[in-house]
Amino acid sequence: MYDRAALIAAARQAGDHTPSDTARRLKVARNTAWRLWHGHTAPSANVAAAVETHYGVSAGQLIKQAAA
Fold it and tell me: What is the pTM of this model?
């Protein structure tokens, strides 16, 4: 399960307060950043790697295993 709160908290700590800020930093489309911020999609492997590079949040922190 994708934890969008981890992404948003890290983005805000880095000074990115909107999905557009995140899109610029991660070099993704604005609609992709919006979908990530609002939990409509989980990050791809490439986006997760960019999140780790720019925000210091690992893929493991972004994607949590759902409780059984």
Answer: 0.89
How many angstroms separate the CA atoms of 14 and 11, rounded? 5
Report the chain (68 residues): mean pLDDT per 10 consecutive residues: 94 97 97 97 96 95 75
DSSP states of 2-62 as a string?
B-HHHHHHHHHHTT--SHHHHHHHHT--HHHHHHHHTTSSPPPHHHHHHHHHHH---HHHH
Q: State how far the Cα of 33 lies from the Cα of 36, in Å rounded to an integer.
A: 5
**Cα–Cα distance for residue pair 9/17, rounded to 1 Å:** 9
